Amino acid sequence: MTDDIRARHVAGPATVDVDRQRHPVHMALVLEGTCRLRRHDGSLVPLPHSTLVIEPDHATIEVLDGARLGLVSFLSVASGPSLFEGAPGLRQVAPVDAALTRITEVVMAWVLAEPPTGTFARHIIERTLRDLVGGLILDSRLRPVTAPEQSLYSAVLHHIADHYADADLGPESIAAAFSVSTRHLTRAFQEEATTITASIASTRVSVAAALIGQQPELGLAEVSAKSGFSSLQAMRRAFRASGRNSPSAMRTLAAQRHRAANRSRRDVDTTADGP
């Protein structure tokens, strides 16, 4: 579809054997209906609409009648570290935002129907696709697996994932959004051995790390603003408290990975063109 990303849609009823794909399946997104992940041991995992599956291995995905699935492969991942290695903490199966799913599907369907031919067009579209896919992966990290109606804690985590960039996001604003007292909200997080402030900071750190990994050319001050931090210094303190590498070190490593991926793509293009 582009120099780096390969994608296709599968409509049910169908079965996808991820080990027999021409391009390795690095990501599967349930676009509509319900699918099932059947692992090699025979266990079944239901995959409702707007579910992301990361790097399924030795498994089949059953696309039920009326369901649709999007499969994505990355040349840069095939030639370098896996998604799990590049983004520790990922879950293999996780819910994602339904609106983001629809937008990603529309863009991918359009590109599949009319692939770009010019170098500049490929570059712009590939960047757009990578940002959308990166957004899906990040969203899958921020959203709890449990449904939001199951607990106040889970619902608030979803709320934080949607509003991390709000400057006034905090215990008071969240309590008001859920029509509960801050004491009741605090108690719900204490039962999970954490705090609201720590959860907000953790989400913002994850967003900042994803932005740095996807777009190392961004200035760190811009990253901190996009991630909801009040300042670059606040972002650096949050990274230090989380035990991660500093934003600067992470940015250097991301730039190196991007250069290596670009070299891999050029090598593949040269091989494909022949002598």
Automatic annotation (TrEMBL):
Domain of life, per the record?
Bacteria
Against InterPro entries, the record matches this protein to:
AraC_XylS_family_regulators, HTH_AraC
Q: Where is this region: Disordered?
A: 240-275
Give residue ranges for domain HTH araC/xylS-type. 154-253
What SMART domains does the entry give? HTH_ARAC
Q: Which controlled-vocabulary keywords does the entry list?
A: DNA-binding, Transcription, Transcription regulation
| Pfam families, sorted | HTH_18
Show the coiled coil region(s).
Answer: none
**Among its keywords, does the record have Glycoprotein?**
no
Molecular function (GO) terms for this protein are: DNA-binding transcription factor activity; sequence-specific DNA binding
PANTHER family assigned to the protein according to its UniProt record, in alphabetical order: ARAC SUBFAMILY, HTH-TYPE TRANSCRIPTIONAL ACTIVATOR RHAS-RELATED
Write the protein's name: HTH araC/xylS-type domain-containing protein
Give the source species: Janibacter indicus
